[in-house]
Amino acid sequence: MRQTSETVTVSRLLLRDTSGDYPLALLAALVFATPAWSLTRRGRVFAVTVGLLILTQFLSLLVNIEYTKLWPQKTAAGIVVSLDYSKAKMILFDWLYAFLEFMGRGFFALLLYFGAIALVWGRPEPGSMKGSVGRNEPCPCGSGIKTKRCCGR
After folding, report:
1. Distance between CA 102 and CA 26 in Å, rounded?
2. Domain residue spans of the chain
3. pLDDT in tens, 13-32
4. Per-residue DSSP letters for 57-76?
5. I need a labelling partner for 121 at 20 to 30 A (CA). Which of 46, 91, 135, 145 fits?
6. pTM here?
């Protein structure tokens, strides 16, 4: 009896191939699931952090373009190197590219979320203190600024 060997093809996506798919969903889930924030605050925080996330994606695109331009190209005449190629520049863009591709996208979403929490941490919602604190008294959030210039706008 002859044994036949069958080739089994398994289609798997590498984790790094799917890493660009989730930062916006992760950011939205974190912002909208944050307790003690009103819907307007959640909307504002989400809008600002999405704008910053778009900037990080643009930065990733620019690094990717520069990284691709620096690679030597094989031609019929031999290997052609870019005019602005240098070893130090190639190493720098190699590290930037690796960081942005493999870790940066999800990292930036988390970093933006935690930055947003830090900016609004402990500050009461605008308008929630009406009648309880005078306009010229120090703000109860602890900033030391008058209420009318801080949280009482």
Report:
1. 16
2. 21-121
3. 444 454 455 677 778 888 88
4. HHHHHHHHHHHHHHS-EEET
5. 135
6. 0.57
